[in-house]
Amino acid sequence: MDVAEFRRRGKEMVDYVADYLENIEQRPVYPDVEPGYLRSMIPAEPPLEAELYEDVLRDVERVIMPGITHWHSPYFYAYFPAASSFPAMLADMLCEAIGCIGFSWAASPACTELETVMLDWLGKMLQLPEDFIAGTHGQGGGVIQGTASEATLVALLAARCKAVRLVQASDPKISEADIISKLVAYTSDQSHSSVERAGLIGGVKMKKVPTDQHYAIKGDVLRNMLEEDKAAGLIPFYLCSTLGTTPSCAFDPIAELGPICNAEKIWMHIDAAYAGSAFICPEFRPLLNGIEFADSFNFNPHKWLLINFDCSTMWVKKRSDLIGAFKMDPLYLTHENQESGLVTDYRHWQIPLGRRFRSLKMWFVFRMYGLTGLQAHIRKQVGLAKEFESLVRADKRFEICAEVIMGLVCFRLKGSNKLNEVLLKNINHTRRIHLVPCQLSGRFVLRFAVCARTTESRHIQEAWQLITQLTYELLQEQPL
Ligand SMILES: *Cc1c(COP(=O)(O)O)cnc(C)c1O
């Protein structure tokens, strides 16, 4: 493909993408394929000779589209949203064209510098404390990680390194392995599975703090666990608290947990993967009160802030905590400005070396929507969730299972878990809408998350109509 053909094909691809998104509602939201469906549809061997572009594109419709779960369909209500917008897609095209690997300042100064400034912009939209803003002289600042899972792990590894140094400072004879075997990290029984996984990867014990009736950690429960563990000779060093848990969008009281962590020299990381985006709205910002006690904070603009995957923004109060934990300086990566104190080398802030120019899509989206446009998006989706909630509440056969604060509604039929499992299966089998379940207090619960940017009231009404129709049919067969 030469540049002339690229010019033509590129325009056709934009048309294909625009048509796809414009007509996405007409496709079944969930695919009708069996595991292994794809292998038989394409050759077992790679092509020896070049093929025609038309043939490749034809196979997109034949092979790929039948196996796609359409996350941007307004009938998609599963998991949490995957953000998407046209400005972000255009910026990503440019990112691919520049194609730099921005591991250091010198590897592409704009890639690094725009990222630092975009994290400052976003930090200001969230009204983060000054400590988290890089500015020109700050000790803190932000970085784009690929996912919230990586942010949780990076924070845990930095905390582990800091804890080891702290213990060794008072007792130089104790070995690192000895200290690590005594370290304990904490999170709640509602936190995302990636937190437990960070403990496994980081080789430290991870304890789950039981939550209260609101699915949140209580300060005194945490304090008791810490006292017991310290009395047993263990060393508490890390807490990952959640703002907006995955099962039910519950919020840990970070203003209560933060002072406990600070007093015990425990690193507090906050995972707000989904809910973080909503803190740009003043009415949701109080849920972030207590952020001043945190050492690190992360959320996914790629979930709810109209910036396509991947873009998981993480801030730290002391960037030296991250850089100090993972620094490596082979000669081929050093550059003449790195000791100037004026540049950031993001390779020290993350696990991989390579990184894409992801701040471009933040810049495009922030400028094309403005803060008010982004706030309007959040508020609209919360409004749609409230609309769904009132439909559920008006039907006595159903119950709401957790307070609806943002764009997630947890609900179930009053009755057995089995009944709800069958209802969900029937819903998903229609392929007209798509939902996933969660478990809350031992009960099987349906999660309805407002996801696609183009979801409107009529989609919510249609979804509810389908659910009630299937409920009617189900109850004919198996009464409550
Ligand atoms: C979605 C989610 C995650 C995982 O996000 P990734 O970016 O895919 O790692 C972590 N924590 C919470 C609370 C989430 O909702």
Automatic annotation (TrEMBL):
<dbReference type="InterPro" id="IPR015424">
    <property type="entry name" value="PyrdxlP-dep_Trfase"/>
</dbReference>
<dbReference type="InterPro" id="IPR010977">
    <property type="entry name" value="Aromatic_deC"/>
</dbReference>
<dbReference type="InterPro" id="IPR021115">
    <property type="entry name" value="Pyridoxal-P_BS"/>
</dbReference>
<keyword id="KW-0663">Pyridoxal phosphate</keyword>
<keyword id="KW-0210">Decarboxylase</keyword>
<keyword id="KW-0456">Lyase</keyword>
<dbReference type="InterPro" id="IPR002129">
    <property type="entry name" value="PyrdxlP-dep_de-COase"/>
</dbReference>
<comment type="pathway">
    <text>Catecholamine biosynthesis; dopamine biosynthesis; dopamine from L-tyrosine: step 2/2.</text>
</comment>
<keyword id="KW-0127">Catecholamine biosynthesis</keyword>
<dbReference type="GO" id="GO:0006520">
    <property type="term" value="P:amino acid metabolic process"/>
</dbReference>
<dbReference type="GO" id="GO:0019752">
    <property type="term" value="P:carboxylic acid metabolic process"/>
</dbReference>
<dbReference type="InterPro" id="IPR015421">
    <property type="entry name" value="PyrdxlP-dep_Trfase_major"/>
</dbReference>
<dbReference type="GO" id="GO:0004058">
    <property type="term" value="F:aromatic-L-amino-acid decarboxylase activity"/>
</dbReference>
<comment type="similarity">
    <text>Belongs to the group II decarboxylase family.</text>
</comment>
<dbReference type="InterPro" id="IPR015422">
    <property type="entry name" value="PyrdxlP-dep_Trfase_small"/>
</dbReference>
<dbReference type="Pfam" id="PF00282">
    <property type="entry name" value="Pyridoxal_deC"/>
</dbReference>
<dbReference type="GO" id="GO:0042423">
    <property type="term" value="P:catecholamine biosynthetic process"/>
</dbReference>
<feature type="modified residue" description="N6-(pyridoxal phosphate)lysine">
    <location>
        <position position="303"/>
    </location>
</feature>
<dbReference type="GO" id="GO:0030170">
    <property type="term" value="F:pyridoxal phosphate binding"/>
</dbReference>
<comment type="subunit">
    <text>Homodimer.</text>
</comment>
<protein>
    <recommendedName>
        <fullName>Aromatic-L-amino-acid decarboxylase</fullName>
        <ecNumber>4.1.1.28</ecNumber>
    </recommendedName>
</protein>
<dbReference type="GO" id="GO:0042427">
    <property type="term" value="P:serotonin biosynthetic process"/>
</dbReference>
<dbReference type="GO" id="GO:0005737">
    <property type="term" value="C:cytoplasm"/>
</dbReference>
